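This section describes the prediction task in plain terms. A model, or a person checking by hand, is given the sequence of a single protein chain and must write out its three-dimensional structure as a string of tokens. No templates, partner chains or ligands are provided. The sample shown here is typical of the held-out split.
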Amino acid sequence: MRLLIVGFGNVGRSLARLISKEEEYSGKIRVVCIADSKTQIVSNSGLDLADVIRRKEERGTVGDERRVELKELIERCDPDTVVELTNTNPVDGEPGFSHIRDAIVSGRDVVTANKGPIAIGFHALRELALRNRVQLRYSGTVGAGTPILDFGKTCSRGDKIMSIKGILNSTSNYVLSLMESKGVNMREAIDAARKEGYAEADVTMDISGRDSALKLVIIANHLLGTRITPEEVKTTGIEHIELNAIRKALKKGKRIRLVANAGSDYTVSPQELDESDPLCVSGPMNSFCIKCKYSGEKYVIGKGAGGMETAVAVLRDILSIGGR
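The expected answer:
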């Protein structure tokens, strides 16, 4: 399988490491092109991934060639699958949306971990893929390496999913957990989360609940067959949660968590959960409760962030397309 990777940040480099270090994959997958925001590097015989990673980390770019439009890159390197890993844009999904659209129209399968295009253009992109007889995979957009979307589809066979509830953002969960365990305020908790690598420089998407809302839209559209958009999710973040509220909850045997709900309505908001609730995880973890009509509640818990964790989900989708 010939891959074209667009976007070579943490997830892209982790995917390259994963492919190159495991002989099982490196013998079956050939990365023929990698493009970052400014440059590109192409080799029809397959790139030396370790060399490209080293170049990116030392020089900040993957190659010496100036980046061209994706359509031109596809024509030049003729990939089987385009892997779209650019940064999430919660407003219009660009440039990821255009990348995915152009790859589909060119007849290529697409794998992405980019939440923006999938949340904003879920049905448009899926219908376009169907018309062009290609596959569009996006399990890495939710839960990182924790396979919530695949698990949910399995649960729905022979049953009916009634609702989904979950903690979908690792950064906000880590921040709230630090406030509980260390007795620090939110600003201090965010600073600590950055030092530990669980938070980006700009945590607005995480703390405001917007990241959780995008993921909730993908979950609802994928598993419940809805046609909702991010604007339809009633979203309240944790930015106004103070240490005093954390302490009051703890005295009652509860913990405050940013919880997303999909079912009768679609919301993201801080909620008090019982400490004994399986959904009430701490640290950089995600948790999901899928309630089925006949078989009841099922829980999935796993690490919800990280370059390698997300890369595993991307590779899983790549291998699924290849029938391996």
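For orientation: Residues 239 and 253 are 22 Å apart (CA to CA).
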